[in-house]
Amino acid sequence: MINPPRQPLDHGSPITERERRRVVFAAVVGTTVEWYDFFIYAAAAGLVFGNLFFGPAGNGVATILSFLTVGISFLFRPLGAFLAGHYGDRYGRRVVLMVTLVMMGVATSLVGLLPTYSAIGVSAPILLIVLRILQGISAGGEWGGAVLMAVEHAPDHKRGVYGASPQVGVPLGLLLASGVMALMTIIAPGEAFEQWGWRVPFLFSVVLILIGHYIRRRVEESPVFLEIAQRKEQTKTPIVELFRNHWRLVIVAALVFAGNSAVGYMTTGGYIQNYATNPAGPVGLDRGPVLWAVAGSALSWLIFTWVGAWVSDRIGRRSTYVIGWILLLAALIPLFTLVNTGSVWILLLGLVFTTVGLGFTYGPQAALYAELFPASVRFSGVSISYAIGAIIGGAFAPTIAAALVRATGTTTAVTVYLVIMVLLSLVATLLLRDRSGIPLGPDHESEQSVSPIRRLAKV
Question: How many other β-carbons are positioned within 10 Å of the β-carbon of residue 410?
Answer without folding.
Answer: 13
